[in-house]
Amino acid sequence: MSWIPFKLGQPKKQIVPKNVELDFEREYGRLQQLEDQTKKLQKDMRKSTEADLAMSKSAVKISSDLLGNPLCEQDIAFQQMVTALDTAMKRMDSFNQEKVNQVQKTVLEPLKKYSSVFPSLNMAVKRREQTLQDYKRLQSKVEKYEEKEKTGPVLAKLHQAREELRPVRDDFEAKNRQLLDEMPKFYNSRTDYFKPSFEALIRAQVIYYTEMYKIFGDLTQQIDEPGMTDEEREKENEAKLSELRSLSIVAED
User: Fold this and answer.
1) What is the 3-state secondary structure (H, E, C) of 110-176?
2) CA–CA separation, 146 vs 154, rounded Å?
């Protein structure tokens, strides 16, 4: 959102009190910041859901590829372990898809709807600024005739200029009052609007990671060799790696 006032000649009379203009700039500035933050949040949430889906889809592909690897045909124990992994990855992907769908519905769609309000707000501010410039132009015109000698023709033109000024002034004051009244209300409503969305996001994350704990807990029980400690398992892996390193095809030059 950007607001660049028109650069026109200023009338001698103060059109808008300085404190009122400062109030307007403050409230509009807060909404500009809110719009930027909303757009950034929407973009980041979209990237996050895309990354989540890509992660679970990649995990499923890896486990599926392993399951089709010839190694699984030669080693029944390895095949059982990879089958357990593949089942776990598919369960993870299913829960992840549910989570992403929930985030799409409860967070991304409300963010999109909220962002759609800002163009109308920008247009209202632009109309207010255009009316203000008309107000200044006509006020300058009135002042020009007020400074001239009060002849018949001048008085007639002064009367006409004041008549032209009146509806424009009233229009500006109405637009200005409305924006000064509604901009703070819109800004202050943001918490009530977004709170349900982020409560839903937190619940979706809690449900997902609770299910992940169960899935990987089940997987651990299926692939772990009974009676082996982590230290023993690490030593066994190191021993197998040492055997591989001793082969001539992997020996260092």
Assistant:
1) HHHHHHCCHHHHHHHHHHHHHHHHHHHHHHHHHHHHHCCCCCHHHHHHHHHHHHHHHHHHHHHHHHH
2) 8
Q: What is the mean pLDDT of residues 3-9?
A: 45
Token pair for residue 108? Answer: 């991304």
* Token pair in block for residue 112: 């999109």
- Residue-level length of the chain: 253
Q: Give the pLDDT score at 116.
A: 94
pLDDT value of position 2:
44
Q: What percent of the chain has pLDDT over 90?
A: 66
